[in-house]
Write a structure and sequence with these properties.
The protein is globular and about 65 Å long. The longest helix is centred in the last third of the chain and has 20 residues, at 354-373. The chain folds into 2 domains: 3-132, Rossmann fold, CATH 3.40.50.720; 134-378, Dihydrodipicolinate Reductase, domain 2 (2-Layer Sandwich), CATH 3.30.360. It has 384 residues and is α/β, with parallel strands linked by helices. Helix content is 33%, strand content 25%. Helix 1 (14-29) crosses helix 9 and helix 4 (86-95) packs parallel to helix 5. Helix 5 (110-123) links the parallel strand 5 and strand 6 (127-129). The model has no long low-confidence stretch (mean pLDDT 97). Bound molecules: nicotinamide-adenine-dinucleotide.
Amino acid sequence: MAKPLRIGLIGCGFMGRAHSNAYRKVSNFFDLEYQPVLKAVCARSEASAVAFAKKWGYESVETDWRKLVAREDIDAVDICTPNNTHAEIATAAAKAGKMILCEKPLSMDGPEGVAMVKAVEKAKVPNMVWYNYRRVPAVTLAKQLIEEGRLGKVFHYRAKFLQDWTISPELPQGGAGLWRLDVNAAGSGVTGDLLAHCIDTALWLNGSMDSVTAMTETFIKQRKHTLTGKVAPVGIDDACAFLARFRNGSLATFESTRYARGHKALYTFEINGEKASIAWDLHDLHRLQYFDYQDEGKLRGWRSIHVTDHGGEHPYMDKWWVPGLQIGYEHSFVHQVADFLQGLATGKPAGPTFRDALETQYVCDAVLKSAKTRAWQKVKSAAK
Ligand SMILES: NC(=O)c1ccc[n+]([C@@H]2O[C@H](COP(=O)([O-])OP(=O)(O)OC[C@H]3O[C@@H](n4cnc5c(N)ncnc54)[C@H](O)[C@@H]3O)[C@@H](O)[C@H]2O)c1
């Protein structure tokens, strides 16, 4: 019989749904020592919390996260609320001795992240941040190929994350669904929202960064604020592009915008090494593109690997259907829960931990500072 892990989820939006789906599915597909139990969900409105609990199978509801965090029948707190709430909730949850699964970005900025890392490490509670793209099987396969030394020395890392949903000047900022446009709720724009994903994957695949130089732009300078009804300055970066030097000597370019007409969530990366290159595209997430210079000359070319094989060849895939049948976006969250639970069982915590995610925060801080100062910035290390 699996040991129950009683979840208290805070926030019933996009991520509240993605995580609830993962908790519900994980034990059907993975054999694990722990099994999530959907104990309580928290939303500020009771009607929303009750409707969500009914739909997803939570046993009870709260309307104040402080009450949820204080409950003795909760083992793990899952933070699925806007960025400006992560620190306060996580710190209180750590003090209450709860395990914490926190949505990305970890915090509004580096200093806030440091306090969160201190809180979980002092309380010695398991902690993880939901940088879920690490768990897309094709991305995990990329990690394995790099660790096997197949790329050799890495020269280039190239990533972008493009969207197009904020082009209209009529779109307001702030409030439900639009908190991402309000700097007080989001901390930053595309840097903390989209590039944070690219940065987390890059740090995981290619090691830490030494320095960055960036430019940002806010194309629409003022928007009506949903909560006040008044037109207010826009404080977020609508677009950001930066160059980076990794500590392994490779050079990188990163770009993100919400003004790339025609792109909804085009997250891509490419890595060029002396022996091989790999490329990945979220819109075709079950494929990994691979070029191996060691292939026989007449056959040399980019291969499109359909990452669906079993028998240990392709990460996570033996847990799903039969070879050749692909899985999708939501499965990355199922994998992340599975790895978290596995980490509890083995005592080897699944990453990214809060400390790992602090490194991403430091890159974001350096990027935003560079855009302001128009100068290269060193990236701080989050290592102990
Ligand atoms: N891992 C990913 O790929 C990914 C994707 C989207 C969002 N996120 C992150 O997840 C977090 C939530 O984003 P989202 O897209 O789910 O937002 P959302 O707006 O869809 O949902 C946020 C929810 O939090 C609720 N909320 C706000 N303050 C609250 C409070 N004090 N107490 C209880 N509930 C509160 C809101 O009512 C809403 O239901 C953000 O930090 C975001 O950056 C991560």
